[in-house]
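Marked as duplicate of an earlier ticket. Keeping the data here for the record.
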Amino acid sequence: MTMADECDVGKIVTAFLLNTCRLAPRQGQCDIQAATYCGSISTEHPLDDEEAELIPLITGSIGEFYIEPMLPLAGDIDLMFHVSSELTIPRGHPAPTQLPDEFHKYVHVYEIIDSHLRGFVYLQMRYLLTQCSNDGKYNYLEYDEGHCVQNSGNLLSDGWIVHGPALLADNSDTLQLLPMDVVRCLRCLVWPPQAADWPTRHRNYGWPDSATLDRIVSNGCDVVGVAHRQCKQDKWISKLQWRLSFSRAEIVLLNSWMPVQQIVYHMLRYFVKTERLSDCADNSGAGTLSNYHIKTLMLWACELKSRSWWTENLNAVRICVELLNTLSVWLIDKRCPHYFIINCNLLDNSFNVGSVASKLISTNEKYISTWFVNNYIGQCAQLCPQNVSRLSNDVSTTKNIQNVASEIVYWRLNNLPYDSWRAVLFAERYVPEAVSQHSLTVRSCICWMNQFAKIDKRFPIYFSAVALLQVARRISRNGSTDELMDILATILGRNFNQCCSVLSIRKTERNTSELVELLLKSAVEHLTTYRQLEARDFGSIATIVTTDFEALYAYKRGDYQRCLQLSTQNIRTLLNAVLIPPTVPQFQFVQLFDGDVVSLTALMLMVNPECRDETRFTCISQTTLSLYLMTQCQLKLRHPLTSLAQTLDYIDVAQRRHPRDYTLNQLTLKLIERKVLINWSRLRSDLTY
């Protein structure tokens, strides 16, 4: 390959990444999972105080990247959480008198004390804060200087895998979820003196700008319970040492990068991971290259390089090669300066990086260009239809590489609506399941709605419907409580008093059935609004009817004429659909279904309990639901044989259109087919006599 060819391939790789890495807003499955995990974490009750809360923060790739490449950014979901009854302050800092609303009325304050290693600290109990009821400010009780606080005792350890400071929840077997990596932290609302030089140091190229600096400093930092690798064998220090965490600052900084900077960071991470340069070759415990070293490299580059270095004659391969060469020098010199803390080295003699440095220093544009064609563009091609993936078998010439890249980009751009659609369908199944597994609280509702709103405005509406159904179920079983009324007020906001006369319900504790009915009606209204938004945005790629929940509710109320009218209209639309439209997760919407479908589901699970783990087994499509409702209404309204004959034809078409492993769909269709045939026989018998 000539120098010109090398340059051309580098430009092809650059253009490919620029054209396939989508920019925010996006609604991927990872984002939905992370948002749902946040609400789930916030339902846990730490310590002995049930009023204390866990406050989550999405970190890692999902929090830091706003691009969405074809190949995944994240291997897991990273969450940090702090407890609302705990806080840290720098040593010598006065006791705070005002705190954000998320903090508890009683707060334990720990003082941060430097250790002998930069960036690692100890914590000592310093104050107990007590909030005044009249003005919301805090008084404090000062403790005598005591023992250091241990870094163990993660509050979510039951049933989790402990991995360093993190807890791992492996969800890979259900709904194709990524595992969750949860780290407990303690908040520090003050920018730490250990990083005092960072906001004020001289910057030649104005990055980060003053507004970003102010925002980061005002966010403070966190303290994470983990000891330095050199201290992990020490019996006492390993239990007492904590690390300063700047994850909040990193999220802000990485989201301020130009798209090319985020793409280069993604390229570096993908290269290092795929080449296994961050794996430890033995069990010696020696430090190895990690994503954090790559992030640190990028942060320094963004600050020390001019904007033109990144954008003029843009070639992402060239940029990657220069940064990898810089990293190799760092590794050889055992020098990786912490981005925030001066005189803090992230590499030392314990790092086993000799072979990695040798490999990095030998990289050049030809090698990296070829590597990305074979290992990145080639992998992307495998995600495309066969006619595209077959092209990637021959990348021997620049022209062939360009053809493959162009075909993938074309497919990627045209597939965007379908990717978004799949993410929405994932949310429809995953959100109800996740909410049903955790207790709704006011804080979890706020957390869920805020997180979902960041992804897509449809999702808070859908979540509200799911939450209303769950509250209705709890009220129907145990009656209304002040806690449930507070949850309803949170979900419904200004519409709360319009939906139910909350004051009379609280005072007299009457009309539970009336309240449940109002909640069901409100849930259906939310679901109908959600369907309308869904049809507006995705009606060009799938046939979506918007009145399926309205018809279901009409049937439940006994309004069979209205239900029949809506269901008949829907089935005439749906039987001609190119794609099978959305499914209704029967488990979570059980209150809207009649006894036949509920019993059928229960029998299916008794015969094969494993069906619960696969959503395709337990969901009912809009087509099946509409046919079920139409058939039931025809039977209840005693429709003639001609109507039932047409219904049997519809059922036959639906049975052939639904895959065989859509178990509940097939069983429901079989059920109504049998009902029609039994009624058919009865009517024919009556005509004979």
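See parent ticket for discussion. The two ends are 90 Å apart (CA to CA).
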